[in-house]
User: Fold these one by one.
Assistant:
Number 1:
Amino acid sequence: MEQRNNVTEFVLLGLTQSLQGQKILFVVFLFIYIVTLAGNLLIVVTVLFSSTLGAPMYFFLGYLSFIDAVYSTIVTPNMITDFLHEKKTIYFKACLSQLFLEHLFGGAEILVLVVMAYDRYVAICKPLHYLTTMNQRVCVLLLLLAWLGGFLHAVVQLLFVYNLPFCGPNVIDHFMCDVFPLLKLTCTDTYIIGLIMVANDGGICVVIFVLLLISYGSILYSLRNHSQEGRRKALSTCGSHITVVVLFFVPCIFIYVRPSSTLPIDKSLTVFYTIITPMLNPLIYTLRNSEMKSAMKKLWARKRK
């Protein structure tokens, strides 16, 4: 405990050391953050106030958009403000708080994507049982389980990192606090802890990604018995879900499945799944969903009146 307290703050190197590059990135990521908040909150408001979006799919989509908005807020504002400062520091407790919240909302998002895949599986493969299987009580229970899973995942991350001794270097070659960059700064052997982190992060990502691919594969296979219109609608919906799953999971797997090490490309991949993907999700879900676009137009027309 005494060793760890030798480090009271960390210095973040950020994405670039170039002052000109930081000014450009400040404008770029500020724009991305505004678009991310606007897009995701628009979906949340549309789901809340539209009477036509009462299906469980939209219930989960609303919560996914809420998670994306908060998840982006955990990372992006700090990074944006750091572009304006020559020395980018974060206090030890603030670093751990950021780590916990990242994995809380990241873990919850992964499990919400699993729930959404299950919802589509029941809707397409067992349509006669859909309304009874995915009733309101089940939907709320599944959502609570997703939050519980994200919380337990985040607690594991926090407990392991909190008890590590930080007694020397405090420079993190990253734009945010995460497990593997922090493990590099400890003054103890982290090989075993690194393996546990790989299992907790990478293992979960791989297993869930494979399960999601199998689930959507089963859905696509079952479409051979549907009408052409049914296939078109199901393919449009599942195509959006599969796109989001791939965009989120592939970078995560690359970063977390490796042994506890960091590569220069990790920062770019982290930008992609923590900042770019939350911005793209509203576009992916709305552009391919006629019901969502129609509900947004009605909501906008109602507000103009």
Number 2:
Amino acid sequence: MVLGYRLLGPRSLAALGAACARHGLGPALLGSCLHHTDLRKSLTVEQDTMKVELLPALTDNYMYLVIDEDTKEAAIVDPVQPQKVIETVKKRGAQLSTVLTTHHHWDHAGGNEKLVKLEPGLKVYGGDDRIGALTHKVTHLSTLQVGSLNVKCLSTPCHTSGHICYFVTKPGSAEPPAVFTGDTLFVAGCGKFYEGTADEMYKALLEILGRLPPDTRVYCGHEYTINNLKFARQVEPSNAAIREKLAWAKEKYSSGEPTVPSTIAEEFTYNPFMRVREKTVQQHAGETDPVTTMRAIRKEKDNFKVPRD
């Protein structure tokens, strides 16, 4: 089957990507969509101890190159486009040692096998046996090193049963840590509950990710920010933080710039799925319990028709 991708809008392409990921059809259907990546700019977040380079991939995915500035050892998060990863590593003069895979969907793990052929000896981490080229299966609170950086694995099942977020810190550093959240936490949103429940997503967002330091930078798996904020605006129309973030995100997106990263503290101000304990969100959902509120607004989001404005 051949799809005329020029006839598809961004939402349709995103839906296609998700379907491909679930059914293992990614390379066959999404190969022709890679040209969209050229319109999206990369971004490097530099700190004295850790450099994070955002690498746009496919239609709306992000890969992340994490470089330890002390040793130049590097890890790549969800390298769905391996050649782009290899080229960036060479440009940065880094030594790639590690693959951090958030979950098994094709648009995140689909490049692993090609990457390990291009760069033999890589350590491939993940929490699910369905992840290609996996060498190190991790569980909740497993730890590993990338040069002098500490990586803690956080189990956040729901979008998939084996989803892992990676919390990266530098011992003794006063700089903000980073968390790579895949399809669990997005800017102003969360992933669909394909293999889990509202209770699991509540625990993932509020009890695991929500308890990280407030200044933790959140690097998510997709550029979904504008649509997420339009839904957040529907949930809390009087929330000024949502309106301000939406205006900012539209400006960034129009110039091809990423809206990532956010911070944990910011997410608590405008992300309805992080705000399920707030009365305004519960009242919108017609619920009084955070978990049932989570279930209700996720169902509402699944059927949300994104307005043009």
Number 3:
Amino acid sequence: MNARSGQAKSDTQANPLFERRPRHFGIGQSIQPKRDLTRFVKWPKYVRLQRQRKILRMRLKVPPAVNQFSQTLDRNTAVQLFKLLAKYRPETDQEKKTRLNAQAEKVAAGQQADTAKQLVVKHGINHITNLVESKKAKLVVIANDVDPIELVIWLPALCRKMGVPYCIVKSKSRLGTVVHRKTATALALVDIKDEDKQPLASLVEAINANFADKSEESRRTWGGGIMGIKAQAKIAKRDAATAREVKLA
């Protein structure tokens, strides 16, 4: 019985329909199987710089003046803020051309041209600085990822000194979309419509609770000092060995 089963097994192995063709992965032979090569990819330089900067900010001790930009506005309040800013977007070049043509047609027809002041959000770091120093700004919005950070690192302190509400939000590109630019370091609201005064007041109250009221705490809070997984495991191992030695002693 066993001999017959062994003979049948050899017959099935010799069947040419199911011939075994082992693959060899040497040079110039079978194609290598697909593997996850993410670890070996040479990423673009700007990606490497982004990742290195993030790791450095985690590892090194970050002064409070820089660390305050890691505390950004919460999502719900940010949504309300950008809805309000969207109402005061400056006009595009095409919209300005259309408006000026309409005014020129009115003047040519002998009518009075509309010269009412447009209420728009202000941008440009020098312009915003003048508005804050003259206390004309009702709200200042600062991006948290400005590079170099020295461009805006002093702006929160200036806003606190002048009593102007301010907040820090994520992404300078998100601020840039409000004013039809790629990026914007900061925005400021100066003049608004009457129907938006109450929403702005409630928005400023929520913003002050997160920034102006916590200014003393943020001025004393250092950031960074977070080590990697390997370093944490090494420190934990060393502490455990020290605890065992103390226990034995």
Number 4:
Amino acid sequence: MSNRSDDEWRAVLTPQQFAVLRQKGTEPPGSGEYTSTFDAGIYGCGACGAPLYKSSTKFDAHCGWPAFYEALPGAVRRIEDRSLGMDRTEIVCSKCASHLGHVFRGEGFATPTDERHCVNSISLKLAKE
């Protein structure tokens, strides 16, 4: 896990990236670069570049944010999140602990895991194949 200070993160991230990745913000639905992108490649962490998701696990959930049904093994860490009066599961990058989004289960999507990793586009960087 990264031991960077907030000042060090601010030096390498845009203010928008810092707000989402380090302060657990959320970008407005439908506004992200990767919401409707289905190019082949690997999605990495927008903060540290660690590989997180294969493009083959991305699906259109019509939720306003990129959706994946499965992360690369060990790439994300799940954290119980009871903020905003809800029980949710936050996902963060295993390498640098940057906020990615949340995981939702049992929504009935036709995916192998019945999970939706709802990830902020600004938390991602696509390395196209």
